[in-house]
């Protein structure tokens, strides 16, 4: 039985990895490990289909190391013992362990000494936050790297490679793919390359040749095989981003009907992840202190939508959109942090005032650290006037309250009192 296209197209060397430049690009950490042949155990975490297994496979191929693939949830301690015995025989084994967050204590205890000795190079893969879901014993012996969703450009590069590859890909087939179909596969998979490749293979194998003997993959075919509709059938593919942009701008502009219209387009296209992420951005960027309760309600609505999935997710999503569109607006938070960041990037930072520096070590007092610090809780209203910013920017003002919304008016009043 022929293996799926996504499996066949896994990179065989680090140079073939698509995306993840922050890890495998020139002079980046995993690339350095491979070039120096100085591997260490690691945990890769990120959404499904973003390349965790591919990176592990590429590391093995580039270093010519033995490679084994197990699942922490379904494979037994006996399977781990077999891998360790092989490592003793060959010198070292790279072990990709899927769902590492489900590794139980007996398996952990067995693996730990072999990670310490370097006999087994563990590459744990998980979609969960490793700082929460993975035991400290394993975490302390691994470097932790986030694997990010692939960009549309990276996705197109990988899809084109699969279409051209005559050995492992679809290059032997007479495929003619419309640009709009390729754009849809690359953009509507939301960074999940495995899903896009599976849809491409299904389209290629299920579409009969036309009168010219070509397998024509149109946008309609791509929509059906991916089970996501394109937002509109435009030539340049910009509609995907145009609708998302219009969605945020309509909420920011307090037009509730336009906001619901663009939400409907995104729901119809199956863009649940995009909607949830964008609503969270809108809540904190555009509503902010104008209606902080609406911000928290949006977080709850997004969580409910993710648990329900489409089509039911449309209900809490509509609730959040109406709430945000009709809320007082404020962008004071994003403007405040951007002002602070601009000063830092312009070199305006300076030394931390001595009375704020850490003094929990021997000799700190002699250096004048923390000596004149005033503990706010010891004063009336738990506040006392003292300098917190460095001398060079002690007059800097970053937060400038908006005048909309009762909550921010209260913040403004408190700020004036403290000033």
UniProtKB/TrEMBL annotation:
<keyword id="KW-0067">ATP-binding</keyword>
<dbReference type="GO" id="GO:0016887">
    <property type="term" value="F:ATP hydrolysis activity"/>
</dbReference>
<dbReference type="GO" id="GO:0008047">
    <property type="term" value="F:enzyme activator activity"/>
</dbReference>
<dbReference type="InterPro" id="IPR003593">
    <property type="entry name" value="AAA+_ATPase"/>
</dbReference>
<dbReference type="GO" id="GO:0017116">
    <property type="term" value="F:single-stranded DNA helicase activity"/>
</dbReference>
<dbReference type="InterPro" id="IPR003959">
    <property type="entry name" value="ATPase_AAA_core"/>
</dbReference>
<keyword id="KW-0547">Nucleotide-binding</keyword>
<dbReference type="GO" id="GO:0003677">
    <property type="term" value="F:DNA binding"/>
</dbReference>
<dbReference type="Pfam" id="PF12002">
    <property type="entry name" value="MgsA_C"/>
</dbReference>
<comment type="similarity">
    <text>Belongs to the AAA ATPase family. RarA/MGS1/WRNIP1 subfamily.</text>
</comment>
<dbReference type="InterPro" id="IPR032423">
    <property type="entry name" value="AAA_assoc_2"/>
</dbReference>
<dbReference type="Pfam" id="PF16193">
    <property type="entry name" value="AAA_assoc_2"/>
</dbReference>
<dbReference type="InterPro" id="IPR027417">
    <property type="entry name" value="P-loop_NTPase"/>
</dbReference>
<dbReference type="InterPro" id="IPR008921">
    <property type="entry name" value="DNA_pol3_clamp-load_cplx_C"/>
</dbReference>
<dbReference type="InterPro" id="IPR021886">
    <property type="entry name" value="MgsA_C"/>
</dbReference>
<dbReference type="GO" id="GO:0005524">
    <property type="term" value="F:ATP binding"/>
</dbReference>
<dbReference type="InterPro" id="IPR051314">
    <property type="entry name" value="AAA_ATPase_RarA/MGS1/WRNIP1"/>
</dbReference>
<dbReference type="GO" id="GO:0000731">
    <property type="term" value="P:DNA synthesis involved in DNA repair"/>
</dbReference>
<feature type="domain" description="AAA+ ATPase">
    <location>
        <begin position="38"/>
        <end position="150"/>
    </location>
</feature>
<dbReference type="Pfam" id="PF00004">
    <property type="entry name" value="AAA"/>
</dbReference>
<dbReference type="GO" id="GO:0006261">
    <property type="term" value="P:DNA-templated DNA replication"/>
</dbReference>
<protein>
    <recommendedName>
        <fullName>Replication-associated recombination protein A</fullName>
    </recommendedName>
</protein>
